[in-house]
Amino acid sequence: MFARHDFVWLAERGWRQVRAGVAPDVSMALDRWCEAGWPAVVRRAEAGAAPGQVAIGFALPPRPGDGRKVRIGACVDAADIVRRAPALPLADALGAVPDDWRAALAALAREAGGAGLDLAVYGSVALAALTGQRYVTPSSDIDLLLRPTDRAQLAAGLALVARHAARLPLDGEVVFPDGRAVAWKELRMALAATPGTRVLAKSLERVALAVADDLLATLEDARCLN
Q1: pLDDT tens across 79-117, in order?
Q2: Which of 6, 80, 118, 143 is catalytic?
Q3: Exposure of 205 by Cβ count < 10 A (0-12 exposed, 13-18 middle, 19+ buried)?
Q4: pTM over 0.85
Q5: 118 is catalytic
Q6: Which of 57, 142, 194, 211 has the least C-beta neighbours within 10 A?
Q7: What is the signed CA dihedral for 142, 147, 151, 155, rounded to 10 degrees?
Q8: Catalytic residue among 141, 150, 171, 178
Q9: What tens digit of pLDDT does each residue of 184-199 get?
Q10: Biggest CA pair distance of the chain
């Protein structure tokens, strides 16, 4: 089972599938990516994709000079994925951020770990940590994934991230047990609003509005199953 923001490593046939659909200049960049052994990132499924295919993407480092970001999308057969890993734990990405963020981000990672919260990163910070390339700039966001298992963890995680957002450019999503994800800032506002408030929920299959209380019910269900 794949999830958005997972990292996946491709077999040679998978790389051939990807290269077949890109321009020659991009193909050269992908060859370097392949040689380095870096992963692709799972993204939302494409409409009309064949059964058994997984939508993936590659975000190349900003180009020197103009800072342009080249993003490459492709679909590969699941059978041509040889390894999968979830989004990078926050604690493993601390070396990839600017010095003036590091102490505050390390404090967030420590507090999350002490509270038993599953906090990961994706986007530019995760790619910088995995590849060693220059993705992070002073204008970058730190994209977090908070994956709570019950309401108490959700409340603690939202409070923790909101508090640290006063010092850090924190963005990202809360991922619920059924795979739907909501921007943490949007969810926090919805929980303080009128009951029945809807939020934009993203899953591997679709993007749709969801009632915040329905998402909370998935936390209760997961707790009962455990």
Answers
A1: 999 999 999 999 999 999 999 999 999 999 999 999 999
A2: 143
A3: exposed
A4: yes
A5: no
A6: 194
A7: -10
A8: 141
A9: 999 999 999 999 999 9
A10: 54
